[in-house]
Amino acid sequence: MKVIVAGLSKTGTKSMVWALQELGYEVYDFLEHFIYHQKIWTKIMSEGGSTEDFRQMYENVDAITDLPASAYWDEIHKAFPESKIILMMRESEDDWIRSIDAQGTELNTWTAKLICILSPTARKVDHFLTMISVAVFGFVPASHIISQPRYNELQYKMKYRRHNAHVLQNAPKDKLLVYSIKEGWEPLCKFLGKQVPNTEFPHRNKSGTNIFELVKGEPAVLRVFKEAALSLAVIACAVSFCTYKMYTADSIGQLLSDCTYAIQETISSVWG
């Protein structure tokens, strides 16, 4: 582990991922935390963890960004005391909250809600996000299956202030860079001892409204869409079968029995 990005989500973490990758680092972002370490993160956030847990997860990774790792930056630094720490902050709390709200709106369209219902992997991601909200921000997000979710703005702001203050007060000064992606390559490369690339600094997801565009090629996201499509096909088949049975069954009891059995067997064969 060489770099711990301690900035919370929506402080430029996606841009930082691309920048660190351009500099040759292998980076674990939110999706990697979920895909490779969901089980151990679930244990840490619900029961607690140890320095060895963090060492086990990230000993072969160059850099980490985004939640839940950024909220546990100090514990991760205990496992990798030689790693450097980057704290990114927005110009104001209000800018940060607006970005949080924009991404929340993007993730709560009817299409996104339907995918969450149809895909087992999407539901696992949703549960993982809920655990992060409880562990990091201290509250369970309001249910948003029917209506637009409401975020506890005050709670978010208080966590943002406390998190940044904790990093500033406790990170070793010789290993800390307070940084904004608007500063570009120069301060980042100087801090990391890297040569400045002959490319523009990447600016990704600045408004928080193109998250699906950013992750559309990720294997886990492709799996979500495949599961959703398969679930829709299963539902269509079940509806067709039950419609057929309406005209061939000898009784309502037989109709219900046949349809229930068919649906159970189909779901079992598809999702185990």
Considering the chains and any ligands shown, give keywords for the structure:
single chain; 272 residues; mainly alpha; Rossmann fold; 2 domains; 5-stranded parallel beta sheet; 12 helices; 5 strands; 60% helix; elongated
Description of the structure:
With 272 residues, the chain is mainly α. It has two domains: 3-215, P-loop containing nucleotide triphosphate hydrolases (Rossmann fold), CATH 3.40.50; 226-271. It is 60% helix and 6% strand. The protein is built from twelve helices and five strands. It has helices at residues 13-22, 30-46, 51-58, 73-79, 93-106, 110-118, 120-137, 153-170, 185-192, 211-215, 219-248, 252-271; strands spanning 3-5, 27-28, 63-64, 84-88, 176-179. Strands 2-3-1-4-5 form a five-stranded parallel sheet, with helices on both faces. Helix 3 (51-58) crosses helix 4 (73-79), helix 6 crosses helix 7 (120-137) and helix 11 (219-248) packs antiparallel against helix 12. The longest helix is centred in the C-terminal third of the chain and has 30 residues, at 219-248. The radius of gyration is 22 Å and the shape is elongated. The chain starts with a strand and ends with a helix. The mean pLDDT is 82.
CATH superfamily of the largest domain: P-loop containing nucleotide triphosphate hydrolases
Number of helices: 12
> Which blocks of ≥5 consecutive residues have pLDDT under 50?
none
How many β strands by DSSP? 5
Give me the Rg, rounded. 22 Å
Proportion of strand residues: 5-15%
Mean pLDDT: 82
Major sheet details: 5 strands, parallel
Helix share bin: 55-70%
Give the neighbour order of strands across the main sheet.
2-3-1-4-5
Determine the CATH topology of the largest domain: Rossmann fold
Q: How would the global form be characterised?
A: elongated
The succession of helices and strands, N to C, reads: EHEHHEHEHHHHEHHHH
Oligomer: single chain
CATH class annotation of the largest domain: Alpha Beta
Which class of secondary structure composition applies to the elements?
mainly alpha
Span of the ends, CA to CA? 38 Å
Pfam family, one: Sulfotransfer_4
InterPro entries: P-loop_NTPase, Sulfotransfer_4
